[in-house]
Amino acid sequence: MPDDRESRAEVELYTDGACSGNPGIGGWAFILRHPRSGRQIERYAYEENTTNNRMELMAVIRGLETLTRPTRVDLYTDSEYVGKGIRDWMPGWKARGWKRAGNKPVKNVDLWKRLDQQLQRHQVHYHAVRGHSGHPENERCDELAVQAYTQRVANEG
After folding, report:
1. Is 16 a catalytic residue?
2. Domain count, the chain
3. Which of 7, 15, 106, 126 is deepest in the core (most CB within 10 A)?
4. Do the Cβ atoms of 20 and 41 come closer than 8 Å?
5. Residues 4, 38, 102, 132: which is the catalytic one?
6. Can you give the CATH number for the domain in which 65 is found?
7. Which domain holds residue 12?
8. Catalytic one among 16, 47, 74, 137?
């Protein structure tokens, strides 16, 4: 029987992205938690002239890039775009030289390639979270992502 410690994630990564306008100003956020120690960090930022899908990807990328060594990660996100990309689309894109069916370019290929680098480095297990359903970490990430871009907009005025 496998050792339970080996099957559990070393860290939990919760992510969300948000955008005011699509494209528009956007924000991303993540919570990175180490369950055994209880340590947790939250990070968030905004970007100009972006899309919701880019912010969803950026939240995952920045969370994974925060890790200083290869790690087992349980990733929780409400983004179907990120989930389908990881599970279904990326293998085909990579096999076709980062092209979609019909030799069409992959949208957000710069971020998908960054994510792919992190997926090669870490052992990531994707978990779908239903957005705006009361999941505490998902709600917190949404709050932080929106805060990131609303603070930026408020500072303009």
Report:
1. yes
2. 1
3. 15
4. no
5. 132
6. 3.30.420.10
7. 4-156
8. 16
